[in-house]
Amino acid sequence: MEALPARARVYVACVALCALACLLPLLAPHTPWWAVLMLAALYASGEQITARWRFAGTFYPVLLAGAFLLPPSAAALVAVPGALLSPAGQRPLWTRRIWRAAQLAVAVWAAARVHRSLDGRDAVAAGEFPCALLSAGGAVLTLCLVLTALDGGILTVAERVPARRAWRGLFLRSLAPLSVHGLAGLMMAVLWRSPYGSVAALLVLLPMCVSWWVFAQYHRERAAHQSTIRALVQAVDIKDGYTRGHSERVGQASMMIAHELGLADERVEVLRFAGILHDVGKLGVPTRLLRKNGPLTPEERRVIELHPEYGHEMVRGISFLGEARAAVLHHHERLDGSGYPYGLRGSQIPESARVVAVADAFDAMTSTRSYSRARPVSVALRELEKCAGSQFDPLMVTALARAVDQYGWHPAVTADEVCTPPARPPVARVPGAHR
């Protein structure tokens, strides 16, 4: 995003002013500057390391150690140099850096205030762990609350996210990792106050750095997976204009069904991949057939029906796809055995393929194609229900209906609209399922 809306700039300016107010007490005497400078340098170095590893996160243990060791204003200053020097990612760079520095300064200041009010500083100095844990827990909770409040606010003013959605899930997603960082920060603070001194406190960061490196490797591998899938989908999009957007929507619908079925997060992700890649075999089908207006001849239909096998051959060697490969091969099978390529029946059809089959047919009906206009969502769901038990798994149809009722569905036109009205297909066969 090249420019932020005016209201977002005002919001950032207000948070920056709050951060300056938090830093004003630094002008008073007795500020432990050597500790502030040491922690600030450590935090800035940590931010550069995480940026180099391309790991999305921040060096929170150092910030929390500062909140446990320093006066609130001094603890707030620890975050500022590192945040201002860290990569911003998108433009406007300095606005984003100032926002991050101000956000962290306000949050760390509040955490340090709560920690001090709970007598946490004395507990850390004395090594009284029950009391130190309670006060540290209060500081972590405060940090999490302030970060959540500010993040939700910027989403609302900068990206026009509805207020009821802006804060949904932010607090719970950040509480667990911040709690772990809080324990590491507390260990740093206790060692810092111990006879071993500040150098010993740095040893706490070694296992944290190792874990961050492992996570960075995982994220790099995940990014490589995403790039592989994106390249395959883009190749299909270039060849078949209809699939532009269709693959992503089928992936989204597959994910909605999987969530509604209560599947584990790992399987939900795999089913999203299955939905996105279900038509990758169209790369092996002549372009003139994919772009043909009007009905297909029996011979042309037989050629089109080879695309699941082509797709399976293309993705068979991609190990991370797991059961998504079976979905690519079998997503045109039907419960009554009349599908293709192998005419499987009932439970012979893999669960992943039954999920994608419903998602694919639903998007086919709710999207405009060269030979049929988009149907309303309610009509498409009724059509799926009519075919449940013969063509589709009733469990998957019910799961999709519940998910759409709860979250809604907003289909997009994926091909040029035509003026000729489509012929009404038989109820027993969902339209568009052959492509």
UniProtKB/TrEMBL annotation:
The chain crosses the membrane at residues 62-85, 97-114, 134-158, 170-192, 198-216. Residues 243-365 form the HD domain. Residues 221-416 form the HD-GYP domain. Keywords: Hydrolase, Membrane, Transmembrane, Transmembrane helix. Gene3D superfamilies: Hypothetical protein af1432. Signal peptide: none annotated. This is Metal-dependent phosphohydrolase. SMART domains: HDc.
